[in-house]
Q: What sequence folds into this?
């Protein structure tokens, strides 16, 4: 996987796992990560699925629905990659917070769905429900921020509410922030994510 890594200023600070949206790259979310917590390390990953020249983290079918088999395989691959990166760069594997947008938020959600203790927390910007036919692992102690747009036509608000419920039923502490915008990111949700981060992870 193509990636970039910058260490935290303090060993106790979390590492952000940055996961871009469709057509993005490993640098897309760096400004948002800095806005949320400038001192944190970052492991910024570029999706290795090519869709008509656009980088993604897993395949989808022509109708836009996810290829579940590929998504699970890519999720396993990403989890193994983060495990290896933690050894290579000597950061705390148990202190990783995902920051993902759209397709990146979806693969981060898939990590939560398929790998217990893979993330300490997550900031999921406009995610969908990756699977509905699955028993989630124990997410007790995992703090999650979800943002969504009330007029989003790609991820309907009802699906976001369903995701929140599924994560909470697995034990996660979930904050949902809804904007009046669509699928594009707006400043208010980044500000809300920053406040959420301060409340849950600032020491």
A:
């Amino acid at each position: 996987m193509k990636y970039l890594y910058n260490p935290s200023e303090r060993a106790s600070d979390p590492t952000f796992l940055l996961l871009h949206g469709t057509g993005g790259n490993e640098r897309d979310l760096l400004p948002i990560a800095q806005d949320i917590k400038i001192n944190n390390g970052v492991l910024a990953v570029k999706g290795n699925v090519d869709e008509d020249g656009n980088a993604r983290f897993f395949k989808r079918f022509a109708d836009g629905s996810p290829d579940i088999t590929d998504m699970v395989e890519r999720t396993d691959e990403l989890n193994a990659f983060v495990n290896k990166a933690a050894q290579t760069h000597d950061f705390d594997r148990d202190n990783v917070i995902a920051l993902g947008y759209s397709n990146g938020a979806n693969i981060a959600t898939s990590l939560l769905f398929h790998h217990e203790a893979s993330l300490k927390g997550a900031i999921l910007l406009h995610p969908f429900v990756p699977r509905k036919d699955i028993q989630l692992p124990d997410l007790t102690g995992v703090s999650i921020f979800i943002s969504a747009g009330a007029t989003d036509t790609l991820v309907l608000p009802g699906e976001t509410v369903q995701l929140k419920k599924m994560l909470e039923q697995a034990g996660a502490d979930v904050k949902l922030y809804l904007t009046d915008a669509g699928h594009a990111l707006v400043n208010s949700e980044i500000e809300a994510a920053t406040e959420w981060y301060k409340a849950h992870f600032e020491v």
About this structure: The longest strand covers residues 143-149.
